[in-house]
Amino acid sequence: MSAGAHIPLARLIVPLAAGIITHLTANFFVPAKTFLYTYLLFCIFGILARKVFSSVFSGRWVFGAWTFLILFTTGFHLSQNHRQISRSDHFSHYGEAGGTLLLQVREPVSEKANSYQVIAEAGCLLGDSTERRVKGRLMLYLEKDSLAAGLRYGDYLLVANNFHEVEAPRNPGEFNYKRFLAMGNIYHQAWRASGSWEKTGDNKGNLILHWALALRERAIESFRKSGLGGKEFAVVTALVLGYRDFLDVDLQREFAGAGAMHVLCVSGLHVGIIYLVMWFLLGFLSRFRRGRIVQTGLVIFVLWFYAAITGFSPSVLRATLMFSFVALGQGMGRPTSIYNNLAASALLLMVIDPWIITRVGFQMSYLAVLSIVALQPVFYQLVTFGNFLLDKAWALVCVSLAAQLATGPLSLYYFHQFPNYFLFTNLVVVPLAGLIIYAALGALLFSVIPGLGFLMGKALYGLVFIMHRSVHFIEGLPYSTLSGVYISLPEVMGLFLVLLFLGLFVVEGSRKMLPLALMSLLLAMTSFSVRSIRNLQQQGLVVYALNRAGAIDFIQGKRAVCVLCGDPEVVDGQIGYQTEGNRLRLGVQSVNSVRASGKDSILVSENHFSRKGSFIRFGEKHMFLLEPDCPKELPQPVFPIDYLVVSLSPLHDPMKVLECLHPDLVIVDGSNYTWISRRWEKACEEAGMEYWNIREDGAFVADLNQGNSFRGRSLIKRAGSGYRF
User: Fold this and answer.
1) 447 and 519 share a domain?
2) CB neighbour burial string for 635-664, b if at least 16 within 10 angstroms, e if fewer
3) In terms of residue numbers, what domain contains 67?
4) pTM
5) What is the pLDDT of residues 552-608, one digit of tens each?
6) Could you give the number of structural domains in the chain?
7) Are residues 681 and 554 in the same domain?
């Protein structure tokens, strides 16, 4: 019997996921008739193959390949059908028709700094005398007022049929928010000021979801009345209900740095705690006839009731479904594979939402559970403790170690950091998280009893206070977090292969796995080394796309000089988010930031960078930075100007500047007014000079190791194009 024969459902995930990923990667459309003909051919081939190979043992690979192709095609088909924008009735196909869109609020309204964010589903396009059924999701930002604050799930809105596509990232290495929203079938957004939209009425939408969201709101209000406030209130609502709107940046940084961020994201840990405790508390039922059935039913009921309290958030739904399958497997009273139970839940989720495999939470949840199931028993048997508390502590350490081994590469890939003290952190926060969950549920249940509800609230406050102070202490320890780490997708896959082969070697004792693990490790380390050497030799510049500000990175090896243009508050509010991804990708370890000025100041750096006034020399390239402070009569350049960067809307005559400097390329950054940018574009066109408008084209990136970095627009790369030094 093959190694995977006892987990047939797990073997079905691979071809289904491969089909989904192929569609998302290739991004091309296959007509419905093609799928119909393909399925018909599969049926005919299956019938013929059964007659030919039914009695031939060596022909099993034919049926295996046939099954793989069917599931691969099904995954591709499911993924394509899930893409709403490809449908003919998507509202974006009628953007020129005018009229009014009838929208329904489909998710809880989220409060932002200056607006309310509303995810709405289009249902109808209303014209002067026409009505057309449409579909598709739209992200609305509504100006803050009492009407917007009162919006709830299921409400109907009327808004003008005017929207725009979600903007793609304009800087290299920047988080791709457009792709993130697209995985939720959101491709368009719009801003509406007060009075420019209308609420037409209330609607409960899905009754179960409406009831769950109302239950969550009552739970939040109950926590408020129990005496919780400040950071403790924010932690409880996030930890117990998955409601993270009250978390501030400092609180998230502390939990992330200590390796405890997972307790604030309601998912497998929380549902698993409830599952284990409830299964233990109801264990006495298994002594009675049909008691195991009652035990299983009650555990599943409690799990789904908790999911309802959290408002059926996607992560909780995923974990609840997963543990429901696990409970069913245990309740059947006969040996079942937990891998099959996990595979069954994953398959169901992938059929409902094929794109769920792109979600970080989905990937980490299943990887963590699989690793715990496979490796925790192996780790636990390595050491034996006679003391009860030490034994439980060691069991928790084994769970944390197994989970972190599986999710560590993903943490580095997505978040570029790793908590060094995660074992110590989990010894503290995981037991506290279990106590907090049950104390919070007790506070909710007994909130109607004034005295008892008050005592439960105080107990809950004390537990959360201890957790927060513990996390704050651990995060403040030296070297608590390994940050600023960048690994590429192939390197992540290499690390996972190392862990997979080592896991098979440890769990199954297969000696063949050890050479494969070493080979995978060698390939991953080779990739790390090649990238590090390439980063040491790099030389280039990046003019970033910022709003009302400018920033230019001059990168030499793993060091950079960044010239900042504009109001310090405006620049500082954007510079980290817009540049961090690119600097991580290029391995930049130190940045010397300087403020731009058109005055006759001299600044010389040790990093192949020198500057006098507005003239900048970097390696063999020369740049002139034109700002409002620059004199009206520009000095004649001593060296040929390769780049002219226009920043902060200077009022200089473009034609005179071009005649004086004769640059090879004019770069108009995002700090300029639109009319200034148009003015420079027109002047460059009249002078026959190349230009780059960052407001429209995104960040300008140049590789100076390739000799002349600019030979026409074909060598200029837009942000997000995958271009690197």
Assistant:
1) no
2) eeeeeebbbbbbbbbbebebeebbebbebb
3) 8-82
4) 0.83
5) 999 999 999 999 998 888 888 888 888 999 999 999 998 988 887 655 455 555 568
6) 5
7) yes
